[in-house]
Amino acid sequence: MGLETKTLKQTTEKMIEQLGHLVPEFELKKKAELVHEINELKKERGAIILGHNYMEPALYHTVTDVVGDSLQLAQAAADTDCDPIIFCGVRFMAETAKILNPERTVLLPAKVAGCSLAESITAEDVRKLRENYPGVPIVAYVNTYADVKAEVDVCCTSSNAAKIVEALDSDVVIFLPDEYLAKNVAAETGKKIIVASQKDHGPSAGSKDFAVIGWAGKCEVHDQFTVEDVEAARKQFPNVQVLAHPECPPEVVEVADFTGSTSKMIDKVKSSSASKFLLLTECAMGDNIVAENPDKEMVRMCSVRCPHMNEITLEDTLNALKNNERIIDVPKEVRDKARKSLEKMLEYV
To answer: How far is CA 55 from its chain centroid?
Structure first.
């Protein structure tokens, strides 16, 4: 048996052992060929593959060098010396890697890989908000495109959003673009919130008694979860632990047992003595957790996949490595301004 055949056989066996209870064996055998080729080519090129927690299991557990949430991957992108950087996540994440590594090639293995949140606000919207609220610091969730990041004072992730809002030490803060995350951060920090109108970029409520100005953007995945989902899960599985991402509606977060970023949710499952969990986030992550924690059970009430994250495939990851497909570029004038807001974000880890 040749070395390459032996290595492929080992890859296949390892994938079946780890993922066989989640993915059909015939599918894993086919994907093992892609995994083997990706890993060989990655070594030849000196590449690094970053994978978000929402990647499908056959990719997440086999070809990635670093996995995590937006903050962890931003840190990895800032620290790496590898070239190229293959970003298995959505476009705004790949843009962040390019901003932090302007001299390196960043590849996005997908045709579009957009984001409903990122598309809910533009750089022009931010400029108009500055006009309407002069002197008010603006925080942008990392789920925004580079031109928006270039117009704000600091970026944040769901992991450090509350910490950054409090650190600004300002009577009023503009928090963009996720309305639910803004409301959840306001609740966590004891602040009152209004939501700015997308039409006139001013307050949609008459009261001036507020400390956080939000924006009416929503994640198309987390917006689908309801209090009724939680009640139904608890009725059917009395001992289930409910974990909600802070992009969920505030009323859902309020009835959950735990709220945190994707990585904090993973850590919570690993450290918990509970055996059953309902994850109110992109459902592929449940499979990734179970693959590493076979003693944990994910209640299969989650059927919501992010259509944008779902664009990332092993096939396109291989094509990116082979052909430098879908190179991410950010104009220098945008990149330089956006880098400042991202570097400030990385100070609050």
So the answer is: 10
b/e map 314-334, b = 16+ CB within 10 Å: bebbbebbeeebbebebeeeb
Here the tokens at position 249 are 């509606």
In this structure, are 213 and 269 located in the same domain?
no
Residues with Cβ within 8 Å of 206's Cβ and at least 6 positions away in sequence, in order, are none
Tokens of residue 110, six digits: 């997908």
Residues 202 and 269 in one domain: no
* pLDDT for the residue 205: 42
Asked if the structure places residue 177 within a domain, the reply is yes
Give yes or no: residues 157 and 254 share one domain. Answer: no
Residue 104 near residue 83 (C-beta atoms within 8 A): yes
Q: Is residue 167 within 8 Å of residue 348, measured between CB atoms?
A: yes
In a domain, 330, yes or no: no
Q: Number of structural domains, the chain?
A: 3
Which residue in this structure is represented by tokens 């579009």?
Answer: 112
* Residue 54, both tokens: 């929402």
What is the CATH classification number for the domain harbouring 151?
3.40.50.10800
Q: Which two tokens stand for residue 258?
A: 């735990």
Render pLDDT for 87-122 as a digit per residue (tens, 0 to 9). 999 999 999 999 999 999 999 999 889 999 999 999
Rounded to whole angstroms, the Cα distance separating 345 from 155 reads 5
Final residue belonging to a domain, choices 165, 197, 218: 218
pLDDT, mean of residues 127-143: 94
Q: What is the pLDDT of residue 6?
A: 78
| Nearest of 177, 131, 126, 129 to residue 152 by alpha carbon | 126
| Residue 331 forms part of a structural domain | no
